[in-house]
């Protein structure tokens, strides 16, 4: 039996829709695999009652199919589904890394990212790799059709999870189909600023680089309390705030680790002002999936 800890991730980072992703140091899914004649799935932990155990519908089961690696798979969910923290991706990434080792396949990280992205396609309708790439590789990742680029960044972060459910599928439906040239110019400027900020571990540049006016405002309509939580986090010293992945989670970048407590409390009060219960995690950029033999 093999065990893999696969981290939560925050995709998009505002200006990098479907491209940027960040591994978080916590929470994480724990995936255990054992060789079997056919794939079966058992799920425990956060929100497990909402997760299909049919291998064709579970992201980890799809990965087993993609890698032609049947197994008895147990997933202990640390990452709540439909949170915006790459819950479905954590299981897919964990399964990819675990099954690769179990069957001694020797696939590269890029091949595992591709297999895990197929798992994501069953959930959201698109094989986007922006969550599975950081969940496998760790750090900050740029996922493009021609490959993955990654940087080991170090940044204090807060993720606030309001008690609202937003499915990735629904959140993708509100994304505008066309973009004005002014918005393209703003997004390119932000994305470049953010990427430089990640390579310098500079929270001010990363915070500024989250700014984007196309996808985030459309999705903010689905997250009651987003504007209040964002303003509260900025007032408490965050350098930037955006929706994490498809939401409803909200990500704040902090200047110093000690700022996280104040920013976390401010975000929870911001949601409370809008009548929404929320819980905040103090976290940081983390490593990719870790294998335990
Ligand atoms: N192993 C799995 N873990 C979690 N969710 C799964 C899994 N397999 C299938 N799903 C389904 O995926 C959906 C949750 O995925 P979704 O992409 O909406 O949320 P997320 O992964 O938390 O967020 P995001 O991708 O925005 O960061 C739920 O409908 C759930 O039933
Ligand atoms: N890039 C994806 C991440 C969520 O799975 C989205 O925002 O729809």
TrEMBL record:
The keyword Lipid metabolism does not apply. GO terms for molecular function: ATP binding; homoserine kinase activity. Its EC number is 2.7.1.39. Pathway: Amino-acid biosynthesis; L-threonine biosynthesis; L-threonine from L-aspartate: step 4/5. InterPro entries: GHMP_kinase_C_dom (IPR013750), GHMP_kinase_C_sf (IPR036554), GHMP_kinase_N_dom (IPR006204), Homoserine_kinase (IPR000870), Ribosomal_Su5_D2-typ_SF (IPR020568), Ribsml_uS5_D2-typ_fold_subgr (IPR014721). It is found in: Cytoplasm. Residues 58-139 form the GHMP kinase N-terminal domain. Its main location: cytoplasm. One of its GO terms (cellular component) is cytoplasm. Residues 200-269 form the GHMP kinase C-terminal domain. ATP binds at residues 80-90. It comes from the Archaea. It catalyses: L-homoserine + ATP = O-phospho-L-homoserine + ADP + H(+). GO terms for biological process: threonine biosynthetic process. Keywords: Amino-acid biosynthesis, ATP-binding, Cytoplasm, Kinase, Nucleotide-binding, Threonine biosynthesis, Transferase. It is an enzyme of class 2 (transferase). Belongs to the GHMP kinase family. Homoserine kinase subfamily. Catalyzes the ATP-dependent phosphorylation of L-homoserine to L-homoserine phosphate. This is Homoserine kinase. It comes from Haloarchaeobius litoreus.
């Amino acid at each position: 039996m093999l065990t893999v800890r696969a981290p939560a991730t925050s995709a998009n980072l505002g200006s990098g829709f479907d491209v940027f992703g960040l591994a978080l140091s916590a929470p994480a899914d724990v995936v255990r695999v054992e060789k079997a004649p056919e794939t079966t799935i058992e799920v425990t932990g956060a929100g497990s009652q909402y997760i299909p155990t049919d291998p064709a519908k579970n992201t980890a089961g799809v990965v087993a199919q993609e890698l032609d690696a049947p197994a008895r798979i147990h997933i202990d969910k640390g990452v709540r589904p439909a949170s915006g923290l790459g819950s479905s991706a954590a299981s897919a990434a964990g399964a990819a890394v675990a099954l690769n080792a179990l069957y001694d396949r020797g696939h590269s990280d890029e091949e595992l990212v591709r297999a895990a992205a197929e798992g994501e396609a069953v959930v959201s309708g698109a094989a986007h790799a922006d969550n599975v790439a950081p969940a496998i590789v760790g750090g900050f990742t740029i996922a493009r059709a021609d490959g993955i680029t990654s940087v080991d960044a170090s940044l204090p972060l807060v993720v606030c999870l309001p008690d609202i459910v937003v499915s990735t599928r629904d959140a993708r439906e509100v994304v505008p189909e066309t973009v004005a040239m002014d918005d393209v110019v703003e997004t390119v400027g932000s994305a470049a600023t953010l990427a430089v900020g990640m390579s310098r571990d500079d929270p001010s540049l990363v915070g500024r680089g989250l700014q984007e006016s196309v996808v985030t405002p459309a999705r903010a309509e689905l997250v009651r309390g987003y504007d209040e939580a964002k303003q509260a986090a900025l007032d408490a010293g965050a350098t930037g705030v955006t929706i994490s992945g498809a939401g409803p989670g909200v990500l704040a970048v902090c200047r110093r680790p000690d700022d996280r407590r104040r920013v976390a409390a401010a975000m929870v009060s911001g949601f409370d002002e809008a009548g929404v219960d929320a819980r905040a995690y103090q976290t940081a950029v983390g490593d990719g999936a870790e294998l335990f033999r």
